[in-house]
Amino acid sequence: MSRKRVAIxxxxxxxxxxxxxxxxxxxxxxxxxALVLSNVPGAGGLDLAAANGxxxxxxxxxxxxxxxxxxxxxVQAELESHAIxxxxxxxxxxxxxxxxxxxxxxxxxxxxxxxxxxxxGLDTHARALADGVTRHGATVHFVVPEMDAGPIILQGExxxxxxxxAEALGKRVLAVEHRIYPEALRMIATEYKLV
Length: 195
Hints:
Elements: E1 4-10, H1 15-24, E2 31-38, H2 44-51, E3 55-58, H3 68-81, E4 86-89, H4 98-103, E5 108-112, H5 124-131, E6 135-142, E7 152-159, H6 166-191
Parallel strand pairs: 1-2, 1-4, 2-3, 4-5
Antiparallel strand pairs: 5-6, 6-7
Helix pairs in contact: 1-6
C-alpha cells in the first residue's frame, strides 16, 4: 500500500494533530504524517511532532509583514520540498488566500468545531448555546477560498446538555474532532489518486 504523504499545519498545541499522528501509527492507515508546519515559532505541537520522528518546519507569518503572498509561497515551498500529497489544517490560525487554496484544491482539509453550515467562524460553542440548539458537533471539510464553506467530508454530533457552558460543550466537541478527523483523512487518502 502506498501511503499518502500528509502535512499538518498548526499554530498552537495541535491536539487534532496528535490524533492524526496517533492514527497514522497503524500499519494499515493509508497516510503518513510527513511534515508538521507552524506559522508560530515554538508552537507546542512542533515538539510533539519532533518527538514522534516527524519533520517540522516554521514559516513565521510575522516575518513577512503584510505580504500574505510571500508567506504562502514560503509555505508552499516547504510543502513541495517534502513531496506532500494532502494538507490538513489543525488549528492553523491564518486565513488562506485563493492562491494557496487553489494549489491544493481537493487535497486540503480542515476541522471546524460546529455542524457546518451552521456557526462558521469563531466562538462556535457560545453561539450554539445562545441559540438554544440541542445538537452541536464538528465538521471535517475540504478547504475552499470562502471560510468554512467547502464540501463536507464527515460530521460528528454531541447533545447540548442542560446547564452546558461553552467550555464543557467544547470539551465534548473536541473529543468528537479527535475521532472524526483521522477517519476523514483515511477516507481522503484512500480515495485520492496521485496525478
